[in-house]
Amino acid sequence: MVSEYFSDTRVLFRTTFALLIPLLVTQPVYAVFTLEQVLNEPYFSKQDVEAVRKGGFGVAKIHEVSDREIAVVIACLVKDGSDDALAPFLGDSLPVDEKHLDGQGLINTGTPDASFNDISLGNNERDEIQHYLDVEPGYGLNLSVDEIAAMQSLRGMGDPGQVEALVEEMLHARYQAYRKDGLAGAKPYAREKGEAVSPGEELRKTEENMQGLHELYPDFHNAWLSYPHNMPEDIVGEDYFWVKLKIDERPAFILSHRLASRNEDIHLVGIRDYYISHFFDVSQRVAVVTRLDSGNDIMIYIERAWVDYWSGFASLSKKIGRKVMKTQMEHLLEDHGICGN
């Protein structure tokens, strides 16, 4: 199961926002830093600092707040001629592995219901419709108790269109609840024996572990935790997306929220996946670019994701997961000509 899982979940280690540039907190916010200060140990080793200096990637150690969380942070110097290193993170779509992407859409906040009309479960995905009809509290689908009851009410009707319409309705309702109340609005996932998982609390635990971000940019850190309140003035973009991926040979629906911030010295993009329909609970990523005293720009790129459970040895699965995550992160930056030798 471990190898099968990671062959398909490479694409979803897209997201995370829990740790940012471990800078010396005694430095002023808008100071120009040396490479050593930005990659201050114990986050990046001396070997990783030298790898970055030579144009390669450095990989830092991160404290994971749960045995179900996987986290990786990498650093690299931005290549000459890359005028906007964060452009791939700021378009009308999110950067996703095309081999596994089945569709995505930018949600129109004025008419959000219409934005979900393109979501579908096609003829080749009838097994997934049966997954929805057979749903019970557990790990097969991330649904709340009310969502499960609504889906079970369709049993015996034999109309795939009704299932699809209800999926659209549930995604729309989750988007509205999150937009209104932020992390508190992220509906729980029903598990067995009356237990539940709170995706909002998982994201909060991850974000409260943002070593460095609070000191570097406390306004953004606080806004991300308290969204939709306390939004700082230098937020230059806010968008919502739905994404459909193939995970573990099944379609998965994701709801994402993107914030972008820019000030004199720091350009930052954070992406939060506050709903994932199966296999993962939540995920986050952040990419930031800042100037060094050498005149070079450096990128710090972080991803963190919570799996719903491990089917084997957690320590082995986490080790493999970090390796896969790191490889995919580096490929994204290389493929877009941002970093790498």
CATH topology: Alpha-D-Glucose-1,6-Bisphosphate, Chain A, domain 4
Mean pLDDT across every amino acid position: 85
Under CATH at level 1, the class stands as: Alpha Beta
Question: H/E order of the elements?
Answer: HHHEEEHHHHEEHHHEEEEEH
Structural class: alpha+beta
Number of strands: 10
Q: What radius of gyration results from the CA coordinates?
A: 20 Å
**Largest beta sheet: what is the strand line-up?**
1-2-10-9-8-7-6-3
> How would you sum up the major sheet?
8 strands, antiparallel
**How far apart are the first and last residues' alpha carbons, in Å?**
34 Å
Give the count of helical stretches. Answer: 11
Helix residue percentage = 25-40%
Architecture, CATH level 2? 2-Layer Sandwich
List keywords for this structure.
341 residues; alpha+beta; Alpha-D-Glucose-1,6-Bisphosphate, Chain A, domain 4; 8-stranded antiparallel sheet; two-stranded antiparallel sheet; 11 helices; 10 strands; 31% helix; globular
Question: Can you describe this structure?
Answer:
The protein is globular, with a radius of gyration of 20 Å. The chain has a single domain (2-118, 203-335), classed as Alpha-D-Glucose-1,6-Bisphosphate, Chain A, domain 4 (2-Layer Sandwich), CATH 3.30.530. The strands form two sheets. The chain has an eight-stranded antiparallel sheet, with helices on both faces. With 341 residues, the protein is of the alpha+beta class. It has helices at 2-9, 35-38, 46-53, 112-115, 126-133, 145-152, 160-181, 199-207, 213-216, 218-226, 314-335, and strands at residues 58-60, 69-77, 101-106, 189-190, 196-197, 235-247, 250-262, 266-276, 280-291, 297-307. Helix content is 31%, strand content 24%. The model is unreliable at 1-30 (pLDDT under 50).
